[in-house]
Amino acid sequence: MARHASTMVPTRSSFTLQQAPRRSVLYLALGLALCELAATAPALAQSAGTTAASAAAADAQAAPASAPATTSGATTGTATGTGKVATVTVQGERQVNRIDRQVYDVKQDVSSTNGSAADILGNVPSVSVDPTGAVSLRGNSNVQILVDGKPSAMLQGDSRGSMLQAMPAEDIDSVEVINNPGAEFGNEGGGGPILNLVMKRNRRAGGMGVVNANYGSEGRYNSAVNGSYNEGRWGIQGGVFVRHDGRNSTGEYDRERIDPATGASQRTTQTSASAGLNDMHGLRGAVTYNLSDVDTVEANLGLMRRGNDSVAQEHDQTFGSTGVTTADYQRTTRTSGDNRSNMGGLRWDHKGEKLGELFKMDLRVSTNDSDVDNRFDNAYVVRPVFADADASQRLQANHTRIVDYTGDYELPLENGSIVKLGYKIADNDSEFDNRYYNFSGAVPVADARLTNDFQVDERNTALYGSYQWKLSERWGALVGLRAEHTHLDMDQVTTGTSITNSYLNWIPSAYATYKLDDKTNLRFSYARRLRRAGAGQLNPFVTYVDELNESSGNPFLKPVKTDSFEVGYETKAGILDANLRGYYRDDHDTIRTRQTVVDATTILTTFENGGSNRAGGLEFTLSGKLTPKLSINTSGNLNYTEQQQLDLNGAEVTRHAPSLSVRGNLNYALTPQDQLQVKVNAQGKTLSGNGYRQPFATLDLSYRRNITQQLSLVVNVNDVFNSQKAETIIDTLTLKERNIRRFDGQIAFVGLSYRFGGAQANRSRRDGQDGEGWRNGPPPGGPGGPGGPGGFGGGPGGGGPGM
């Protein structure tokens, strides 16, 4: 986000470059002295994301080509060191892109008042979100999702999709897409490209709030209240929400397994249906206090709860090679449980003597606990040889706790360059406790083949540095290097096995921009990323899958290394903004499966490092106003993916496929009070696991009516033609499989949104901006603090370094 140019030019001062190392060493030493305290701190929750002071300087040195929207006479209320509120009027422009990322403003999305974070992400170019909440970017499912630049336990692991579907869209200000993350970003959550959710924040003096209430089809509903009050040195913000929602589904499954030795086949079919709407609720709050003109502290807290209740019915049949039915039964699965997320943190910002000089320390803790109770009842018509018990139960208790402590120092030099230094210590402690019982009458009997407890304690320690400078009037550059050490302590509690693993990685990154003219920019970027193995890939316990298969993890897996390259062309195509990007991604030491024959009837599947995957493609976006009433936002992505895998005999197998996705948003102002939005999303064939996913397309409609200046009516209809489905196909020499799953995509919501307070709203709020008009970079907090509360999962707005 950019400020007016006048706020981004360094001024001369008595501070010299020779003083900088001494000051930076002092700041970093102060932070590092608290490292062990941070790593063992109690659950203080996740704090505010960093307010990116460097964003303005980055924009100044590498002017983006996307046409900015002019903001005339924006007025912000800010707190001075005396506790009085000063009003600063500025002239400026809101920039869309920065040297290392694309920024998408989602506040104007008509559906944001009654949608979820998953809905918002699904509208971002080249981002795909399936009905379960699984996210991919440019066909890559290894996506890191941050909240205000920081990781959150609730967006890790299997619960991420459901949490995205629970998080209110109303809390989100913008989405930052970082395809090649730089040195300041860590590798948690998969280490892939980053989607950063920048949460809304407010800096206005006085109080304001908004109330949303929505009712949907089949008894769905959601409501949220958000507000803030700012006076003098203090800023307070918070909100609560409730949501009753979910996605019922039906499924069709057909699998044929072929014996490679004899050619004999076995066919299995399954039809299923699952239903269950769950209750979700949460709250958040943040308090900011300006200690002085140069020091600001903040504390924040967030809580979220979600149910895991559902009922599923399935009919399974298995046929032998002669067509004889060998299994036929009905299974009923009743699921109950809940998911609990807590987060909070503390933050201190200190502004130095030099314009733009800033030191930040940030401590946050987040936890996620998920308890699931699955009860299975089988009614056999034809009982198979290796039949499950008539009644069984699976209990899953997963716990994740992340302690994240970072320090960042930023120093603008006299020549206009910017130096950044930072450190990070993060502990990620997880436990995965799975217990399986078969019932003999009313007595539960533990099934040792499926019962195990696995614990992983992961510590990541990192140092990074970056240097940004302006080579000429047309060229700008940013280079960075990150050193990251990972140590793993793994305990397979059930078998009494303890294993350690550690490794050090050097992670470079580089960016450059070239300004062809006032309307056109070229962008170049490179970054290396790491993708660490998940708990399921590390757990050495040998798990029973069925009578023919077992699986086991590998605790000595190393991270996958990914080198990403990108070239972008940004210009003005008539009255529209146009972007074209070419990209290439190369994965080394990929984690792939290896199958080995244990005995005459059993195959063991495990994991190993080896081989590589490659992907590349072209991405375009086209947006702007076609007429005073009609605006468009379209994007497309042509992707080519190549994967190396091992077959049953251990031979290398290469899979490859192109994929095309297109999406478009049309916004039409029917009247000054009425707005209609049409969204089209089409996804081509994509590789998925050992197979591929078939194409699909959807159409969504949204309508907003401004009844008064404070009250609005919003109507959404998702998947108008009920065409959304997930169909995957596997076709190999030993396995032919087709799996179709249809979800409740066709859902309607109608709601009201009421805004109150904030008399200076039209003049005092500059959406998405930090500290316009401040002499010394971003404000130390002012009303609303250094970014305000970060919503559920993370801390204040700003989306700064993610370490």
UniProtKB/TrEMBL annotation:
Protein name: TonB-dependent receptor
UniProt biased composition (Polar residues): 263-275
Disordered, as annotated region: 245-277, 760-803
Keyword Signal among UniProt keywords: yes
GO BP annotations listed: siderophore transmembrane transport
SUPFAM superfamilies to which the protein is assigned, alphabetical: Porins
Lineage, top ranks: Bacteria, Pseudomonadati, Pseudomonadota, Betaproteobacteria, Burkholderiales
Keywords: Cell outer membrane, Membrane, Receptor, Signal, Transmembrane, Transmembrane beta strand, Transport
Signal peptide per UniProt: 1-45
Entry's Gene Ontology cellular component terms: cell outer membrane
Membrane topology: Multi-pass membrane protein
Localization: Cell outer membrane
Biased composition (Gly residues): 784-803
InterPro entries: Beta-barrel_TonB_sf, OMP_b-brl_3, Plug_dom_sf, TonB-dep_rcpt-like
Primary location class: membrane
Basic and acidic residues bias locations: 245-259, 764-773
Protein family according to the UniProt entry: Belongs to the TonB-dependent receptor family.
Domain Outer membrane protein beta-barrel as annotated: residue spans: 350-754
Gene3D superfamilies linked to this entry: TonB-dependent receptor, beta-barrel domain, TonB-dependent receptor, plug domain
Gene Ontology molecular function terms on file: siderophore uptake transmembrane transporter activity
Keyword hit for Chaperone: no
